[in-house]
């Protein structure tokens, strides 16, 4: 069976740490969408590592890791990541597999991302500028190049043809930056990528499942950044929700068992777009400071606010979440009072439904206040050691969502995770 770990908010919920924690119980860890826009942080000993495309199970020798067809892959970034993990003794030639159907991010995709963002002016998405949008556009536009094609002797011809197409678009944007250095790196990295395990991902994973192996699918970004169900157009370009596992790996829906949804005990967003519970005040500043809320990929400060149960319940619905994992609970340790958004007030009317056009509406969040626990929680190792007030905060979330918090993460460390429900 396939279990899934994915983000329920606007990304950066702590998925990397959680996947790393659970990886020991699985045989295969697979990324099914997104690309180097992701930044998944985990710790090996006291060393912090940020993974972008390689699944977060890579530090467990028992597991193999698959980059699925739903991912868009930048060979340059992959090569750097492989060098980093090799420094920790990981042999990627043994435990990393890449689907031949995975689409490639080309240097011109990065240039197009930059040019498109610039042209949007104040309406820019706040993209990570890794070429994600243009690469997925070439996939759905039926132009893209895939990893399997690298092995074809005509790859360079196909590349030049697509590059010419991109150049016309770049000329339209009046984009004149010289990207020849990016291209040089790209072709060097392509030679490296060709030596890795390029497989037929859908047969690979189904063979594993047929042998009774356990698969963990690792989501990138978060449900509110989903191309269909997120805060469009301020979203990423892939399906970040559970459904993305099926088309991003080639597994059938009935193979999916647990969907573990990761959410922070508060909320953050990086980049543009609506964020109803955002706190543009000293409380937001405190959350950013205590939670070290700066992007793992771009270093940008993350916007911070209270937990939004309207958005979370919506995310639980579209994902079929079976277990919640609540992260960064320790970040709230010193707050005297906490607030939880239970409804949106839109033009005088309260609703608990996620509107289609969140960005265009004047939303006043309806809050329920909770006393803070005002006690250190990061040293707790079992439920009884967690502050009582934290437990009532969590019970309220359980009741509202109709799905229970099964684990509470109380620090960035690998073992700072407490099971609170079976
Ligand atoms: P991801 O993209 O979902 O994997 O999350 P990121 O790695 O971008 O951001 C999460 C950040 O929070 C990282 O710096 C983690 O080390 C850190 N983190 C994860 N869980 C916890 C936690 O429970 N408490 C604290 N204080 N930090 C955490
Ligand atoms: P992880 O996996 C947080 C945001 C960007 C931007 C929008 C579109 O680490 O949780 P894109 O580069 O996809 O064109 O950007 O989505 N974004 C993320 N925000 N965490 C991420 O990944 C993100 N990946 C993209 O900031 O607003
Ligand atoms: Mg991240």
What's the short version?
The chain has twelve helices and 20 strands.
Shape: globular
Q: Radius of gyration from the CA trace? A: 21 Å
Biggest β-sheet: strands ordered side by side in the sheet: 9-7-5-2-10-1-11-15-19-20
Quaternary structure type: single chain
Q: Which spans have pLDDT < 50 for at least 5 consecutive residues?
A: none
Number of helices: 12
- β-strand percent reads 15-25%
Q: Give the termini distance in whole angstroms.
A: 19 Å
Which compounds are bound in this model?
A: guanosine-5'-diphosphate, 6-O-phosphoryl inosine monophosphate, magnesium ion
Largest sheet: 10 strands, mixed
Q: Averaged pLDDT, please?
A: 97
**Share of helical residues:** 25-40%
Structure description:
The chain is built from 12 helices and 20 strands. By secondary structure, it is of the alpha/beta class. Strands 9-7-5-2-10-1-11-15-19-20 form a 10-stranded mixed sheet, sandwiched between helices. Strands 14, 16, 17 and 18 form a 4-stranded mixed sheet that branches. The longest helix is centred in the middle third of the chain and has 18 residues, at 155-172. The radius of gyration is 21 Å and the shape is globular. The mean pLDDT is 97.
């Amino acid at each position: 069976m396939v279990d899934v770990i994915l983000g329920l908010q606007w990304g950066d919920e702590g998925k990397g740490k959680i996947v790393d924690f659970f990886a020991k119980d699985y045989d295969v860890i697979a990324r099914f969408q997104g690309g180097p826009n992701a930044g998944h942080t985990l710790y090996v000993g006291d060393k912090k590592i940020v993974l972008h495309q390689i699944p977060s199970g890579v530090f467990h020798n028992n597991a193999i890791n698959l980059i699925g067809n739903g991912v868009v892959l930048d060979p340059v970034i992959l090569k750097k990541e492989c060098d980093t993990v090799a420094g920790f003794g990981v042999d990627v030639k043994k435990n990393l597999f890449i689907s031949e159907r995975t689409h490639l991010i080309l240097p011109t995709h990065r240039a197009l991302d930059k040019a498109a963002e610039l042209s949007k002016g104040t309406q820019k998405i706040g993209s990570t500028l890794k070429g994600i949008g243009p690469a997925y556009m070439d996939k759905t536009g039926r132009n893209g190049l895939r990893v399997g094609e690298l092995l074809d002797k005509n790859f360079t011809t196909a590349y030049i043809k697509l590059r010419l197409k991109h150049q016309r678009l770049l000329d339209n944007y009046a984009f004149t930056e010289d990207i020849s250095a990016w291209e040089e790196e790209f072709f060097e990295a392509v030679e490296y990528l060709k030596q890795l395990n390029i497989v037929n991902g859908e047969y690979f994973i189904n063979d594993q499942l047929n042998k009774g192996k356990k698969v963990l699918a690792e989501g990138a970004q978060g449900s509110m950044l989903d191309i269909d169900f997120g805060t469009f157009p301020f979203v990423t370009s892939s399906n970040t929700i559970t459904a993305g596992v099926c088309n991003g790996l080639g597994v059938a829906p009935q193979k999916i068992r647990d969907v573990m949804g990761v959410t922070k005990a508060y909320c953050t967003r990086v980049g543009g777009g609506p964020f109803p519970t955002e706190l543009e005040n000293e409380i937001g500043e405190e959350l950013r400071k205590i939670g070290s809320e700066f992007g793992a990929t771009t270093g940008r400060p993350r916007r911070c606010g209270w937990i939004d149960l309207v958005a979370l319940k919506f995310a639980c619905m579209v994902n079929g979440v079976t277990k919640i994992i609540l992260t960064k609970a320790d970040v709230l340790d010193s707050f005297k009072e906490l607030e939880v958004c239970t409804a949106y007030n839109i033009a005088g009317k309260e609703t608990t439904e996620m509107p289609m056009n969140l960005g265009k509406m004047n939303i006043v969040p309806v809050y329920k206040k909770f006393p803070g626990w005002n006690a250190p929680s990061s040293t707790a190792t079992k439920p009884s050691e967690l502050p009582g007030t934290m437990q009532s905060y969590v019970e309220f979330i359980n009741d509202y969502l109709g799905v229970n918090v099964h684990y509470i993460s109380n620090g960035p460390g690998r073992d700072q995770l407490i099971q609170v429900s079976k």
